[in-house]
């Protein structure tokens, strides 16, 4: 991959200028990193954009560090949040890191990158150290942050420890003496604080590269709270099905940012969709096959496509479906969905029913009580199925 490709694909901005970073990369290998706060146990496809960018730099011979925020996670990144994050325990941090490593392994060559934890230098900081770091950034600058201002306008609280987060993240750059930091567009403020700290504390230039944030399967910001995520640990069938449901306008951004399809081919698809010579369904199949292949392998990706075509395009049901044995001919769907885990909770099951998201043997279900007769298949939304049979 050329320097030009490194600075264009999966890139939103390069600050202060892409020309300066390209010049530096032409002179020597650069030292760069991205920080990952292990706040949850699962990663979604949006997280893979930055990881792919990091590996592109590593494959080009640059010095790449994956930084786990074992220190910053104690504060909790306030980016894109209207309330403060809950404090996390060390046990949760350790478990999350193990899970993250497992989930990103299909994308990462661990021999080409370095892993560090910022708790190694942040937790031992003394009061004198913290005061020294903070003296380089004005309080007004921190409170001007758009997200803090939005909270205040809504009458919500900005807690003091949250204002420390950009300082602590910024200090990572100083400690590791990097040339470049990579992060999503939501991290731009934090990364620029690090750039300022680097300039004031070390007299050194630091570049900032932001990666695009892809949207979820419903066209809104990908978030676990909205249920619109494609998770990296999804089964091959779930992953394929979810990708087939993304809005048509997201096909090209997904191809460009979460696959390794050459950009020439991506642009062909883009032009074909615009001209009508490429059908969105065919483009989504290519997208889904590429992503599932990366995480589950060629054979499972092909099987997932076949199952999708049989299930969703021909109106069938998957061969492997969880079975619920009913004790009576009439069941309460709310209880069944919650008990089997097909719905996350009874309230989630009620929402599915109210949204007409349930079908019994191909017919819409409108009532809580369902007469199962000799049995059949319950379709839940677009991708989930439950076979209900009478117990013997």
Automatic annotation (TrEMBL):
<feature type="domain" description="Tyrosine--tRNA ligase SYY-like C-terminal">
    <location>
        <begin position="319"/>
        <end position="373"/>
    </location>
</feature>
<keyword id="KW-0547">Nucleotide-binding</keyword>
<dbReference type="InterPro" id="IPR024088">
    <property type="entry name" value="Tyr-tRNA-ligase_bac-type"/>
</dbReference>
<dbReference type="GO" id="GO:0006437">
    <property type="term" value="P:tyrosyl-tRNA aminoacylation"/>
</dbReference>
<dbReference type="GO" id="GO:0005829">
    <property type="term" value="C:cytosol"/>
</dbReference>
<comment type="similarity">
    <text>Belongs to the class-I aminoacyl-tRNA synthetase family.</text>
</comment>
<protein>
    <recommendedName>
        <fullName>Tyrosine--tRNA ligase</fullName>
        <ecNumber>6.1.1.1</ecNumber>
    </recommendedName>
</protein>
<dbReference type="GO" id="GO:0003723">
    <property type="term" value="F:RNA binding"/>
</dbReference>
<keyword id="KW-0436">Ligase</keyword>
<dbReference type="Pfam" id="PF00579">
    <property type="entry name" value="tRNA-synt_1b"/>
</dbReference>
<keyword id="KW-0030">Aminoacyl-tRNA synthetase</keyword>
<keyword id="KW-0648">Protein biosynthesis</keyword>
<dbReference type="GO" id="GO:0004831">
    <property type="term" value="F:tyrosine-tRNA ligase activity"/>
</dbReference>
<dbReference type="InterPro" id="IPR014729">
    <property type="entry name" value="Rossmann-like_a/b/a_fold"/>
</dbReference>
<keyword id="KW-0694">RNA-binding</keyword>
<dbReference type="InterPro" id="IPR002307">
    <property type="entry name" value="Tyr-tRNA-ligase"/>
</dbReference>
<dbReference type="GO" id="GO:0005524">
    <property type="term" value="F:ATP binding"/>
</dbReference>
<dbReference type="InterPro" id="IPR054608">
    <property type="entry name" value="SYY-like_C"/>
</dbReference>
<keyword id="KW-0067">ATP-binding</keyword>
<dbReference type="InterPro" id="IPR002305">
    <property type="entry name" value="aa-tRNA-synth_Ic"/>
</dbReference>
<dbReference type="Pfam" id="PF22421">
    <property type="entry name" value="SYY_C-terminal"/>
</dbReference>
<dbReference type="InterPro" id="IPR036986">
    <property type="entry name" value="S4_RNA-bd_sf"/>
</dbReference>
